[in-house]
UniProtKB/TrEMBL annotation:
Keywords: ATP-binding, Cell membrane, Membrane, Nucleotide-binding, Transport. The keyword ATP-binding applies. Pfam families: ABC_tran. This is ABC transporter domain-containing protein.
């Protein structure tokens, strides 16, 4: 097992916002954390990386390759972030620095973790931009976040997370802010990257239709507790908890909405370049 979370509890003040959450992510597995807003899925991901907000306290156990990482000093956790575990946040506009060219941002973790020169970091940035299918990567690395489309900014965020070849990628609702057709392209990209590199994936979402496209196993959260887990195909076929049943109804309604294009149709967002 690469990641094992046991009896995780997160408290803010005197209130438990995550309580007794346990799950595991074997090498090469694709696991989804799914639930409505406020279910605790994003806080769980932040606890794994030691990025909980001020005032939040986590207890329980988080094992990475058998090593306890919950409560590690920030300096040791910083070595894990990017190097072993990468993270893609929901909104790339806030995750990216608006006054730095995206190539410098992609290459920054390479410089920090591998100590390469600026020239080598830029070369790696171009290679990562190409890897995530950004158009004209040598040109696009010199641009700033506001000069890119939403889909392109998210691809930059993915390139940043993958630059040091982490063994685990945590993606926190990475397609929520995107148009449905662009969303399909990002999901297709994540599937191919995980398959090609062989890394593990934790994908966080409130949308069961989206989860079905990238994950094979799901952990369903409600009010900070696990209410159901199992193979995604089983949850789609016969969900047992009311929460999962509601998520399935929402997914079915979205899939068959007459005004929306069908999910899973991959599109190229290269034409969005301003």
């Amino acid at each position: 097992m690469s990641l094992v979370v046991k009896n995780l509890r997160i408290e803010i003040g005197d209130r438990a916002v995550v309580d007794d959450v346990s799950f595991s992510v074997p090498e090469g597995a694709r696991v989804g954390l799914i639930g409505e807003s406020g279910s605790g899925k994003s806080l769980t991901a932040l606890a794994i990386l030691g990025l909980l907000p001020d005032g939040a306290h986590a207890s329980g156990s988080i094992l990475w390759d058998g090593r306890e990482i919950l409560g590690l000093p920030d300096r040791e956790l910083a070595r894990l972030r990017g190097d072993d575990i990468g993270m893609v946040f929901q909104e790339p506009r806030t995750a990216l620095n608006p006054i730095r060219a995206v190539g410098r941002q992609i290459g920054e973790s390479v410089r920090i973790h591998e100590g390469v020169s600026r020239r080598e970091a830029l070369r790696r940035a171009v290679a990562e931009a190409e890897r995530v299918a950004l158009p004209d990567p040598e040109r696009i690395v010199s641009r700033y976040p506001h000069q890119l489309s939403g889909g392109q900014r998210q691809r930059v965020a993915i390139a940043m997370a993958l630059a040091c070849r982490p063994r685990l990628l945590i993606a926190d609702e990475p397609t929520t802010a995107l148009d449905v057709t662009i969303q399909a392209g990002i999901l297709s990209l994540l599937r191919s990257l995980v398959h090609d590199v062989g890394m593990s994936l934790v994908f966080i979402t409130h949308d069961l239709a989206v989860l079905a496209q990238v994950a094979t196993h799901a952990v369903v959260l409600e009010h900070g507790r696990v209410v159901e887990e199992g193979a995604v195909t089983d949850l789609l076929r016969a969900p047992s908890s009311p929460v999962t049943q509601a998520l399935l109804r929402d997914a079915t309604a979205t899939l068959w909405h007459p005004e929306l294009p069908a999910r899973g149709v991959a599109t190229d967002d290269a034409e969005e370049t301003p």
